[in-house]
Design a protein that fits this description.
By secondary structure, this protein is of the alpha/beta class. 40% of the residues lie in helices and 20% in strands. It has helices at residues 3-16, 25-40, 51-67, 88-94, 107-120, 131-134, 155-162, 180-186, 188-193, 234-237, and strands at 76-80, 99-104, 124-128, 144-150, 166-176, 196-202, 214-220. Strands 3-2-1-4-5-7-6 form a 7-stranded mixed β-sheet, sandwiched between helices. α3 crosses α4 (88-94). Bound molecules: S-adenosylmethionine. The site of S-adenosylmethionine has 18 residues, from β2 and α6.
Length: 240
């Protein structure tokens, strides 16, 4: 797939999803795709995908909350466990006014993301660290209008990793699949302890695909109690 084709697919899919993109966005997505492809040859960055699937599964899927207006009015967003940059980088490309902080515990991915940010000129920053530790940093804790996470952990664990970064009144957006109902049942205790409330569950179809992807929005009601997140590894080993 050449540049024109990839840019065309991004433009058409975004339009079909009702998402307005800045003029520079399709070309930035093409550059990003090229950087992922090149880096995947050197390191295990993300599962190698054909360009069509990369556009749909990584780029369009990441942009789905925009179709619901879930980022409207937000100025800051942190993406926890961003990996090769999903969903944080596509959101930064599509909404240049949004200040995006990308976090991951694997430094080689963070180094790659620093290159992407520089090359694409994104309004973003990449930080290396475990979410449990970074959430103890006063500049990051209770600080962001929004947090996002895709394919990082099951909901009870994910709430403890991601919700501490959100300011009271802000929201956490989780990218989930068909197992969401069951995860939500198990997450009641974590929601209560971390001062979260389920606000919405929605599906945004990706053009031409019949994936059962679900988006969950959790509102943060008040500051994260001092006990959370617990020490590194505990949210995974002993979910609330
Ligand atoms: N969000 C990306 C996506 O959808 O393609 C990456 C998903 S990947 C399966 C999970 C990522 O979360 C990995 O890059 C891993 O290093 C990171 N991760 C897992 N636990 C973490 C933690 N406690 N703090 C920060 N990053 C974490």
């Amino acid at each position: 797939m050449n540049k024109t084709e990839l840019c065309g697919r991004v433009r058409r899919s975004a339009e079909a999803m009702g998402i307005a993109l800045p003029e520079a966005a399709p070309e930035q997505f093409y550059l990003y795709y090229q950087m992922i492809e090149e880096a995947n040859g050197r390191m295990n960055l993300t599962r190698v995908l054909e360009p069509e699937e990369a556009v749909d599964r990584h780029f369009m899927d990441s942009l789905a909350p925009l179709a619901l207006g879930w980022t409207d009015g937000a100025q800051t967003l942190c993406d926890v466990g961003t990996g090769a940059g999903f969903p944080g980088v596509p959101l930064a490309i599509a909404r240049p006014g949004l200040r995006v902080v990308l976090m991951d515990s694997l430094n080689k991915r963070v180094e790659f993301l620093k290159q992407v940010i520089g090359e694409l000129g994104l309004n973003a920053q990449a930080i290396h660290g475990r979410a449990e530790d970074l959430a103890r940093n006063a500049r990051l804790r209770d600080a962001f209008d929004l947090s996002t996470a895709r394919a990082v952990a099951a909901l009870p664990t994910l709430l403890e990793l991601s919700l501490p970064f959100v300011r009271p009144g802000g929201a956490m957006i989780c990218y989930k699949g068909p197992g969401l109902d069951e995860e939500m049942e198990r997450a009641q205790n974590a929601l209560n302890r971390l001062c979260g409330r389920v606000e919405a569950v929605r599906q945004v179809p990706i053009p031409g695909r019949d994936w059962d992807h679900r988006l969950l929005k959790i509102k943060k009601l008040s500051e994260t109690p001092r006990a959370y997140p617990r020490k590194s590894g505990d949210p995974n080993r002993k979910p609330l």
